[in-house]
Structures
1.
Amino acid sequence: MASKLLSVSSKLLKTTNNTINWTTLHRSGSTNAARTWFSGRSKLWTFGAVTGAAGLLLYALDASVDASSDCVHPAKQNWAHNGLLSAIDKEGVRRGYKVYKEVCSTCHTLDFIAYRNLVGVCMTEAEAKAEAEAITVQDGPDEQGNYYERPGKLSDHFPAPYPNEEAARSANNGAYPPDLSYIISARKNGEDYLFSLLTGYCDPPAGFQLREGLYYNPYFSGGAIAMGQLIDNEVVTYDDADIAPTGSQIAKDVVTFLKWTSEPDGDERKVLLLKVIIISAFLGAISYYIKRFKWSTLKTRKIVFMPEVYEQNKAKSGDKSPE
Ligand code: HEC
């Protein structure tokens, strides 16, 4: 490869020495080059300016929406899973599952999570099987065409509290408790928002009109939410005696659990990203070295114009072109 480049470049040099008029080459060459340089540059500038303006506009729009929003901004919390090198807190997920099961599952579904997903994350296979067997699932039809009920299996998804949306609405004053599987990804400021929402119930300010069946929560858009305060000290008990079941601990755990349900493969993706960064850094370094090595013959070459040699060659070839 390098020797090929060498021979091509020496051939190029020979032809220039022999036949090209240097003055015209220089003149026409430089103006052309300048023209392409400028047009290339101006395109880049335009592209940069348009992208920058679009970014600024988006930022300004986002900020103005934030500023005019009708709820309090959630406080930023220090989640254990924040950061590229931090895995989700598996013990928190285990406790959060208990909170979900004992509190939230009376109203909310978790359609996209099956019992088998818990295995290896916060339960052993036997534990997850025991959890699944505690529910009854309608299955069928059997050989006689009848539907029957059986205990749950690992492959079953979490049960829904209501048979359909209408039943859910009529039991909750017309409001629909959304599926919680992806709620952390679906809300702005995910974990921080949900934590603030669950722990942020308070008395409405003077003059705030609350309709029947609504509760005041400054973190919810509009301030009136159809879900009452559910998280409080000791609404669940933990197996681990070292962890006090305070309201904020319970909220933290259920949020950690819901973070896991919205990204069950989050930890694997972090590990994959790390591998990609390490391998591409390694490959990038090798490619850079090879590129330098291959081009070194051309990059270290110095091309010198020697008028005497040029004149001699011109005389020899009898070139009559004007200077
Ligand atoms: C008594 C029933 C009930 C229980 C129990 C319940 N919720 Fe809700 N939840 C609702 C209803 C109803 C809504 C819809 C509120 C609305 O739209 O005003 C809701 C809404 C939500 C929302 C969506 C808020 C938004 O931004 O739209 C989240 C998140 C949520 N609940 C989380 C939970 C968690 C976590 C638990 C368990 C700790 C829980 N809920 C327990 C009834 C319930």
2.
Amino acid sequence: MQDLVILRPQGLYCPAGDFYIDPWRPVHRAVITHAHADHARAGHGHVLATAVSAGVLRSRLGAALPLQGLAYGEAVHHHGVRISLHPAGHVLGSAQVRLQHGGRVWVASGDYYLSAVDETNPTCEPFEPVRCDCFITESTFGLPIYRWQPQAAVFAEIDAWWRANAAAGRPSLLMAYSFGKAQRLLAGVDASIGSIIVHGAVAPLNAAYRAAGVPLPETPTLAEFADPQHLAAALRGALVVAPPAVHASAWARKLGDFSDGFASGWMQLRGARRRQGVDRGFVLSDHADWPGLQRAIAATGAERVIVTHGQEAVMVRWLQEQGLQAESFRTEYGTEGGEGPAPADASASTADADLATLAAGTPTLADTAAGEAAAGPA
Ligand SMILES: [Zn+2]
Ligand SMILES: [Zn+2]
């Protein structure tokens, strides 16, 4: 019997249903797990995705996107394949794809978030384990060095940094991917510390989250302050959330004297922080850490696991040692979400990609040791 999902040059393909999952080339029919740029490419003839991701998908791929939205758990049948979408806990609307055909169940995870300490991302539906025969898992952070701290500890670090900067009268520029991470930060910080201002690339995504019922603090953009004196007053002690592309840019210079920080799972590697040249690195990821990946895989009950983007070789070896049938697919997804920003902000995608490339280099032993030490306050 042919596999329910195979690898084709265009992406992951379901031969029985004649459709693709998160293809990286334009295809006639695609199921999109979530709206990060490397998973949601333009040019498909028909797109199936969660209804809750429709706002972000349309803002990125155009209002004319031929999109069919599904509720979590709702099923459609295509050429005899039953397709349903289940929460992945990664970003707003993110889903795992469950396929059922000929008595078999396969699940393609897309990107997902699950941590060892059983925490969830408050800005989206939590990861739902789905029983299956074969699980196609991501492994962005599939190395034993990746173990996330409780998020309350990370937010306490961010709040303390912001509070100290506010006391000194300077803004705190916090850089993070504009879709997903930025909203998780906005939902998690202590908004009573001061005002919050966002970059123009972050604002439409905040609007999409609010429209989906996710509460976020008030977040004006710099452009909304017409009067330079009002802007200067607002910036004093403000938290400014912007995509990584603003680093050392003319936009950032408008903030005057500021402290900067970067929030990413890659910040667990001290090398990544140093190369990014920021004052502070905060280890916060929307992907599963090493124990989270293991928990997710175990919860599916799958006897066969196919590993995609990330640390495939290490994860495949570990799974085989556990007695599972494991292999990998070479995909063309990015690293941490590969999150390119909104199309209006095309310059940011290059910087995101650069950082991801830098940070995704195989960690050295020195990085590993530093990573453990760097998990505490810098
Ligand atoms: Zn991904
Ligand atoms: Zn993603």
